[in-house]
Amino acid sequence: MKRAVFDPTQDMGQGNQPAIAYGDKSRCHADNCPCRGTVSLGGGPFLCAYHAWADGREWGRITKALHEHAWFLEFIAEATRLHLYPDRKGRYWEARAREFWTEQPDMQPTPRECGKWPEYLTRLRQELAYRVGARKDRPVPLAPEPAKQAQAKRAVVREVEEAMQ
Ligand SMILES: [Zn+2]
């Protein structure tokens, strides 16, 4: 996967040379978008998940925000690699994600998400969509497993019953 770093010399606004991205057919169709195009709606051109469902008038703003969040895209790419192969220290994506999001613990994988890369990846992508303005609501991690939920509920009921005695 290519590193998603914004190169102003490749910006259409900086000259008449087309951006390298235009020669790469796997790129999102939105001008200068750093992402791959993976979604084609109604047989249209391939767009990334951030542009695909957004109003066309928002595209420029979303592209700019995606470049500002290149670090986030790089983290997703890095964690994806670690999901497939541990690094030299034997770390997988869970450890790297905890380290990466030290300052934002709510972005670290929850106990439920550990070992469930697709679920965590979905939340990362939804979070990025929210941060770049392509999604209205901030995603929340999925609730704990129903069994654990039921167990927790029983514990609360027991506590209340005990308190009432
Ligand atoms: Zn895009």
Assess the beta-strand content as a share of residues. Answer: under 5%
Total of helices: 6
> Which spans have pLDDT < 50 for at least 5 consecutive residues?
1-22
Distance between the termini: 61 Å
Bound molecules: zinc ion
- The shape, in one word, is globular
> How many β-strand stretches?
0
Largest sheet: none
Mean pLDDT across the residues is: 83
Structure write-up:
- Helices cover 43% and strands 0% of the residues.
- The chain is mainly α.
- It has two domains: 23-58, no CATH class; 69-165, no CATH class.
- The chain is globular and about 70 Å long.
- The chain starts with 48 loop residues before the first helix and ends with a helix.
- Residues 1-22 have low confidence and may be disordered.
- Zinc ion binds at residues 28, 30, 33, 35, 47-48, 50-51.
Question: What key attributes describe this structure?
Answer:
165 residues, mainly alpha, globular, disordered N terminus, binds zinc ion
